């Protein structure tokens, strides 16, 4: 699955390497959504068709209907996207509990290890200017921040926009401009949890447009990582988009992000750099089906975020590069359905008798092959031997997501003095993280 993201990293690397000798290396824009599902885009079958800019991007570019993230949760997925390596290798996993998801709440002690070579580091070496806008989620302690790992600029937050907190038991999440915080969610960057109103997406759009204008006029190659998070709970949208969709606040958030995609693509064209810019759109993990009406749609696919079924890991994906990428391919899907004992959050260790699906005749993984059948018996041996061979050669990274400590929360981030927002945290008391799902 993660081969796809490895492939993307390779494409970037090869493009940079191959074109280095020429006059103008290509620019890169990755637009990564948060918890947006495969089925949330009109082009992927969402019936309200409220994503006109993404649908146009798909028409003009290439749709990748079988694109997978490396993990069904924010942090490990993003770590894989940035490093081109699976969470087991880049350290974004836990050994506290078998098969549990793990991520980076603000009590997490770990983060992206220095030895991981991230995409912006490769590009920086090739002369690029790199900016991340939005959610980082690869560690909130300063040594893990984007500017320590290849980015030149940052506007956004190290963690999810949960809150508001009282700054006594838990500090509000800081928002950074480059290496220093410029405020905190709910205090300086408002998210009204009653109405869902927030201007954050508009800020993220404006930051992107300003960066593109500056970089286009400078003439140097650039990489923009637009990691917006309005479709992650708590959902939000700005006033002009509130109540505008047929899908509630979630749909409003999607509409505003879609508008942002349009703004960015139009800006690239207006600046005359579109034909030298590779743009890639995707999401970090599947829609949060447990959030019900506050979650998105995974189309026909089973389950969603936090599960390794199709709905958790298969992501909407569109590549766009005028005159380089030819308009792409269609979508073929059928309605999904529930399967007793499979579509469940109960944690059953199936490693002794793994579930097998025939993704040729059953691409949605709706009908697992029964272990007593000859088809299962004929195929499982070959698969298990590949697994064993893989395990023999696997070199796991040091797990970063095992230890949590209230003292490492965002109490006094860099820049807090200037704002009078340095708060006192408790003494250090590391404990094994307890993961809820
Ligand atoms: Ca996510």
Structural features, described:
This protein has a single domain, classed as Alkaline Phosphatase, subunit A (3-Layer(aba) Sandwich), CATH 3.40.720.10. The protein is an alpha/beta fold and 437 residues long. Helix 1 packs parallel to helix 3, helix 2 (52-60) packs across helix 7 (248-270) and helix 6 (200-218) runs parallel beside helix 7. The model is unreliable at 330-345 (pLDDT under 50). The chain is built from 10 helices and 13 strands. The chain has a 9-stranded mixed beta sheet with strand order 2-11-9-1-8-4-5-6-7, with helices on both faces. The site of calcium ion (CA) has 6 residues, from loops.
Strand content: 5-15%
According to CATH, what is the topology? Alkaline Phosphatase, subunit A
Oligomer: single chain
Write the CATH homologous superfamily.
Answer: Alkaline Phosphatase, subunit A
CATH class membership = Alpha Beta
Describe the main β-sheet briefly.
Answer: 9 strands, mixed
Runs in which pLDDT lies below 50 for 5 or more consecutive residues are: 330-345
Query: What gyration radius follows from the Cα positions, in whole Å?
Result: 21 Å
Shape: globular
**How many distinct helices?**
10
Q: List the domain count as a whole number.
A: 1
Give the number of DSSP strands.
Answer: 13
- The assigned CATH architecture is 3-Layer(aba) Sandwich
Enumerate the distinct ligands: calcium ion
The amount of helix comes to 25-40%
Give the strand order of the largest sheet, numbering strands 1, 2, ... along the chain.
2-11-9-1-8-4-5-6-7
Find the structural class using helix and strand composition: alpha/beta
- Mean pLDDT, to the nearest integer, reads 90
What are the secondary-structure elements, in order, as H or E? HEHEEHHHEEEEHEHEHEEHEHE
């Amino acid at each position: 699955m993660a081969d796809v993201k490895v492939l993307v990293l390779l494409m970037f690397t090869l493009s940079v390497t191959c074109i280095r000798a020429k006059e103008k290396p290509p620019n890169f824009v990755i637009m990564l959504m948060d918890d947006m599902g495969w089925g949330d885009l009109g082009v992927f079958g969402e019936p309200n068709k409220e994503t006109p800019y993404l649908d146009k991007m798909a028409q003009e570019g290439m749709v990748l209907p079988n694109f997978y993230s490396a993990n069904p949760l924010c942090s490990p997925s993003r770590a894989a996207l940035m490093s081109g390596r699976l969470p087991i290798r880049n350290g974004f996993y836990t050994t506290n509990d078998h098969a549990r998801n793990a991520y980076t709440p603000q009590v997490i002690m770990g983060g992206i290890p220095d030895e991981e070579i991230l995409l912006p580091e490769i590009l920086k070496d090739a002369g690029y200017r790199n900016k991340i806008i939005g959610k980082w989620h690869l560690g909130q302690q300063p040594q893990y921040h984007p500017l320590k790992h290849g980015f030149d600029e940052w506007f956004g937050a190290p963690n999810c926009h949960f809150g508001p907190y009282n700054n006594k038991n838990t500090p509000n999440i800081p928002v950074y401009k480059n290496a220093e915080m410029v405020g905190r969610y709910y205090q300086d960057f408002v998210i009204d949890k009653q109405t869902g109103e927030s201007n954050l997406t508009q800020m993220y759009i404006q930051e992107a447009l300003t960066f593109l204008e500056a970089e286009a006029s400078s003439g140097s190659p650039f990489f923009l990582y637009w990691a917006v998070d309005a479709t992650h709970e708590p959902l939000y949208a700005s006033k002009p988009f509130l109540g505008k969709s047929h899908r509630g606040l979630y749909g409003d958030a999607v509409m505003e992000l879609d508008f942002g995609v349009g703004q960015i693509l139009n800006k690239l064209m207006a600046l005359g750099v579109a034909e030298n810019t590779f743009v890639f759109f995707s999401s970090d993990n599947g829609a949060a089906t447990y959030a019900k009406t506050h979650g998105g749609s995974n189309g026909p696919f089973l389950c969603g975020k936090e599960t390794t079924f199709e709905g958790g890991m298969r992501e909407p994906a569109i590549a766009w590069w005028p005159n380089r990428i030819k308009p792409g391919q269609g979508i073929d899907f059928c309605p999904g359905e529930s399967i007793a004992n499979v579509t469940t959050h109960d944690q059953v260790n199936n490693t002794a008798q793994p579930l097998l699906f025939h993704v040729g005749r059953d691409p949605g993984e709706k009908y697992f092959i029964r272990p007593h059948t000859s088809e299962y018996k004929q195929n499982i041996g070959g698969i298990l031997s590949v697994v064993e061979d893989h395990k023999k050669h696997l070199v796991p990274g040091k797990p970063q997501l095992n230890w949590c400590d209230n003292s490492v929360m965002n109490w006094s981030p860099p820049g807090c003095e200037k704002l009078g927002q340095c708060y006192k945290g408790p003494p250090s008391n590391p404990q094994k993280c307890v993961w809820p799902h």
